[in-house]
Design a protein that fits this description.
Layout lengths: L1 H5 L3 H25 L1 H5 L1 H4 L2 E9 L9 E8 L1 H8 L2 H12 L6 E6 L17 H10 L6 H19 L1
Parallel strand pairs: 2-3
Antiparallel strand pairs: 1-2
Helix pairs in contact: 7-8
């Protein structure tokens, strides 16, 4: 009976064990997606998009994991981006703060299948702005507060459309 009581719920153990593994992966992809237009330029960003990051364990202990960024682009756009691969990797290093992404893989897709993000035209009302700022009062980190505010504005605007 004592053995059963000492066991923890799986739902409490798994996040603490896997949190650090997934945290770096998804934060890196989130920063890439957020800054994609700055990384590759406005024109190129409208014709291609980052899909995911694949991490591979190093063969030798102590080495960093190898990460490959997958970018969806048309065949023509991928052919152009291959020549800009080193520049993109340098810009990724600048945005991520370190060399996390070591290679880029291009996935060929139909040119029309890259979805453009919807344009946000409706501004928030004063009531909506006040409500959003009240929700974020307890957030101390200014960068996190700014990102959460941006997310909240997007959600409110999407509900309006």
């Amino acid at each position: 009976m004592l053995f059963i009581m000492a066991m923890k719920n799986v739902s409490k153990s798994v996040p603490s064990l896997l949190g650090k593994v997934f945290q770096r992966k998804y934060i890196a992809l989130g920063r890439i997606v957020t800054n994609w237009a700055e990384i590759v330029g406005e024109d190129t960003a409208s014709r291609c998009m980052p899909i995911k990051i694949n991490y591979f364990k190093p063969k030798v202990a102590g080495e960093k994991a190898i990460a490959t960024l997958e970018i969806a682009a048309s065949s023509a756009e991928a052919a152009v981006l291959v020549y800009q691969k080193d520049i993109i990797l340098q810009k990724l290093e600048m945005f991520l703060g370190e060399r996390r992404v070591t290679d880029i893989k291009f996935l060929h897709i139909e040119p029309k299948s890259i979805a453009k993000p919807p344009k946000r035209t409706k501004n928030l009302t004063d009531t909506e702005k006040s409500y959003l700022s009240q929700l974020l009062e307890g957030v101390e980190d200014p960068e996190l507060r700014e990102r959460l505010s941006s997310l909240g504005q997007s959600i409110i605007q999407e509900k309006k459309l």
